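Progress narrative, work stream C.
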Amino acid sequence: MKNRRKSRYIYSDAITYDNLYKMWLIIHRTCKDRRALFLFALNLNSNLLNLFASLKNKTYQPLPYRTFMIFEPKPRLVMSQSIRDKIVNHFVTNYYLIPYLENKLIDVNVATRKNKGSGYAVKLLKKYFHSLLLRYPGKEIYCLKIDISKYFYSIDHEILMEKVEHYICDEDVLNLLSLLIGETNQEYINKNIDYYNQKYHIDIPYYKNKKGLSIGAMSSQFLAIFYLSDLDHFIKEKLKCKYYIRYMDDFLILDVDRERLKYCFKEIKGELLKLKLHENKKSNLYRASLGFTFLGYRYQVKNNKLQISLYKKTVKKIKKRLSFLYQNNRILYMRSYASYQGYFSVLRREKREFKMKLVEKYQVLKEKYLYEIVLLKEGIFYKTFYDDAKILWYLFEYKYVGDCVSFGITPYDKVIAKLQRLGIGFVVIDKDNEVLRCKKEKEDYRSYLSLASRSFEKKKKEEEILEKVARVLDSTDSYDRLNQILDEFLEQV
């Protein structure tokens, strides 16, 4: 009863300008629609005040979703909200849902939660396998995988609200939440789905009345993991499944007792029916010795050891996408590369293969910071390449080796101070993040690049002449050849 009393009057206290502004900062950092962000920011203060007033007065109404299709890894309808609605969605999740519902979720419910996610799921699964392999050496390990059919389209609004009402009693919060999830009842949603199905010859499910959550909204993500929370407790506490993980609507249970897993499967199907959900055809029992997939990886036990791998077609698809991005969008290419590195972090061979070189990162960033010196921090050194390296070579007489100039932490302040004094723009990048940037006139950068390039070419010619002279002196050639080389040098100078 304590939680119920605490959550009875929480609506008004959370609605402050500062809280809405915090949500705006999150949206500004994460939203990809830069045009919509720019338009909202033009009148930021008045937009937030209007939003504040509509929430306080309980007159807020969400705008229609902007729907579009994505096709990787499979065709899926995404519902994009306006900036004001994104702010409200984040606000509801961060100030009403997470504070009062997060602690009801078990640890192994890992999707879309802070410090969890797919990486945590893989970590848990490896831990489970190692525990079973040590405890039951040589015994077959079985895996029960359950996937719910059309999960986001099947979540029942009445059942969901009953579950929320058990912990949140403020009627104003519940009304606002009902307003957000009820948007899928609007007629235009199914009209858009019908249009996409005909245009792309696909079979996106339609939303039934009082069923389903929008795909893409933060509140939908959280409510989707909360909807099955009671089932999580049933599996862990009633069925006593020790080796259990759930990622959204993907269930995985490990055991060495095949009959016990069959019994668990039957019980879980019964609980799903109470929630008006059904498992899809992919749900089944698998032998770990034959292998199974989970969250994009393939797991298999061979010779009492766990092996994790990827399908060749997955690697091929990733390489194809990276190649396309490299040709068309270098900034997105670099971000995707970093993302795939995390994806491959559990695989040794692929991790090495997909490691991005520092010079490649420089080339991508240089397209964005065309008239600024790009300094990349790697360990205790700062490095730059090509034209930027020539400028540093010219100004500081650092060694130019392999199209690269590097210097340590100690002279860093001296380098930055001189670049600022000379009016040369620069940007310092640490782990893909911009740490420091100083924008200057591009003409100053061009001037110093021109001076550095001429000096660099002269230096290269001098080195070539000296190398030729050294070869002549070491050979049996006559001194006439040496005089010829010196004459050529004097003409070039």
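Work stream C, second folded protein:
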Amino acid sequence: MGLILELTHRCPLQCAYCSNPLTLDAPKSELGADEWKRVLDEAAALGVLQVHFSGGEPVARRDLVELVAHASGRGLYTNIITSGVLLTEAAMASLLAAGIDHIQLSFQDAEVAEADRLGGYRGGHAKKLEAAKRIREAGLPLTANFVVHRQNVDRVEAMIALGEALGADRIEIAHVQYYGWGLLNRSALLPMPDQLEHCTAAVQAARTRLKGVLTIDYVVPDYYAARPKACMGGWGKLFINVSPSGKALPCHAAETLQGFTFPSVRDQALADIWATSDAFTRFRGDSWMPDPCKSCDRREIDWGGCRCQALAIAGDAASVDPACALSPDHDLMRQAIDQARDASPALTPRRLAGV
């Protein structure tokens, strides 16, 4: 269904919860415009419906407009996932001319000082507000993404109010998912039970109040779950993620998995990668599942949960996702919450010299 192109790991922001890998791809390793165009051609031939230009910050690529135009010309629905800080008036005009269909704009908070602190970019929040205005004035649908965690979740009502004020068609309240930099900073980011309860109640109240006006998506932290989520809709089932250097991945965090050789779109056709590569077939479907997954009546609902989380928490990518209450490692989630309770709020920012 979807192709996620991480065009670059370059980004002006330094968010401590970023899902990018700790070892970021250097600019010199990035695919060139012609290589990305070939990937888009192969995606269209494969039947992909949507292409999501992501990063890092996709607007940092000087050829983004060229790539959007190429994707649009191939009949693909085009979406940009951006921090907005580089989305100038000129950039917006160029993207509109190229045929962009949708823009997702990320926010770190509703409070200016905290938003700039969490993003590590002074003046960033003001630029985001300007970007939101440009998106709406252009007549494009706007999705406002708010990533929430222990250090900002108490302001969730203000975030929803900001999304309303900006004229968003959709608001996403997404708790940090603990991969990449988020996992590194987990103890400083995991919300406490009372915070999660407050956030959930606030979202439910806003959904009731705004029904028929705008949609609010809500992503909860797996550490409080009783059942796992269908990560990316199931391993190798709906999405292909391509890293800046061309690695084809079934999800953003898959590079953390040991024992895999992820194919490169520089060397193999997208259709072959999707259909035959071990990277996409090993955990596809349910034949790989251990007990109790393989006998569970939810196995074709959650598809075994998250393999990256199973590795990060339980130490084995093929084990039961610890988010599941039936996992022998489920208590490790509770232990992580307990460890975070009195942890320092200090954050390690996403940063790499020269990127």
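The chain has 14 helices and nine strands. No further action is required on this item.
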